[in-house]
Request: fold
Amino acid sequence: MIVDVVANLKFYRGLHPRLDKGLDYLKSIAGWDLADGRYELSGMEVYANVATYETLPPASKPYEAHRAYIDLQYVLAGKEGMFWAPLDELSTTTEYSGVEDIAYFTGPDELLIPLEPGRFVILFPWDAHKPGCCSDQLGVVKKLVIKILFALPGKNFC
Reply:
């Protein structure tokens, strides 16, 4: 997991062959008012989803993790808390779905990451995360999630 501010995006170039496209997109749209929906960047290899939703108390949210995609998450408006925990320390509640690229987990709230405009988080397949939590009070958030295909042909990272 990486948490940082948009001003430092350039330091993460080259970590993964497709991550640069996501970083470039985030840099180009920071501050824009994007409509909710899906944005194609490079077919199924790199795409973005924008969603507006209400934050919820952490106790009502499960941890989640993905195998096929890296998440690059950025709050466009509002403020949320996201919890992070090592995947191998959690208990599975819903087995992995390859169709949706997600599995759900339960466990203690390990590390709270406050997300607001200007900050981003990069989550790898081994990073369990609980997004959409209220940080200090319930509120509305508009968030961009850039999905970056993690596995490379001939490589198995998971």
In short: Residues 76 and 143 are 5 Å apart (CA to CA). The mean pLDDT is 93. The first strand starts at residue 2 and ends at 5. The domain at 2-149 is CATH 2.60.120.370 (Jelly Rolls).
